[in-house]
Specification:
mainly alpha
Length: 187
């Protein structure tokens, strides 16, 4: 049994280290990557419904992939809706999906460079869903990750204000202004 697991690990590493054209195109990892790239392109093209439909169609085939939870959450945040109840439902789904993958994001060094944006998206999901305390907790993580993250400081100011914490709100807005005013304008 141990030899089989060791052999599977070696085979996986071997496949990952091979140039892309040598790995069989029907390999599940190659197919998942292709699907996720398509989802990301649709999202960047602001085709949120198509991107979400592709996520929903494929996420059960890859139950251990965090990519589908992440893209489902982002699409739910940006998807146009037809009313307040649908909007709140989407924000709740986005928050739930991001919370589900957060332990993995926080413990895996691979995501170190992307954590601030994942924290920011989680904060937006909670904040737009009127859970301001949770939004603040994720925005604090975002600025702890990058103290020069102006958008996070601005939103901290907004959500502290909504929580009637005027001292922290003013401090956060001041941090935002300090960062924005220190950046050189490029023409």
């Amino acid at each position: 049994m141990l030899k089989l697991n060791f052999a599977a690990i070696i085979l996986t590493l071997f496949l990952l280290l091979l140039p892309g054209d040598i790995i069989p195109q029907h390999h599940p990892a190659v197919e998942e990557k292709r699907i996720v790239q398509t989802i990301e392109k649709l999202f960047k093209d602001k085709k949120y419904r198509e991107s979400l439909d592709l996520v929903e169609k494929n996420r059960n085939a890859y139950p251990y992939s965090i990519s589908f939870s992440y893209w489902r959450a982002l699409n739910m945040l940006y998807l146009p809706v037809n009313g307040l109840s649908e909007r709140n439902k989407n924000y709740g789904i986005a928050a739930s999906e991001l919370e589900k993958i957060m332990p993995y994001i926080e413990s895996n060094p691979y995501f170190k460079d992307n954590r601030k944006m994942i924290y920011f998206h989680a904060a937006m999901a909670f904040g737009l869903g009127a859970n301001y305390k949770r939004a603040v907790s994720y925005l604090k993580k975002a600025v702890d990750t990058d103290s020069r993250f102006a958008e996070a400081w601005f939103n901290l100011g907004v959500y502290y204000y909504k929580l009637h914490n005027n001292v922290e709100s003013e401090r956060s807005f001041q941090m935002y202004l300090d960062i924005v005013n220190s950046k050189e304008e490029i023409f």
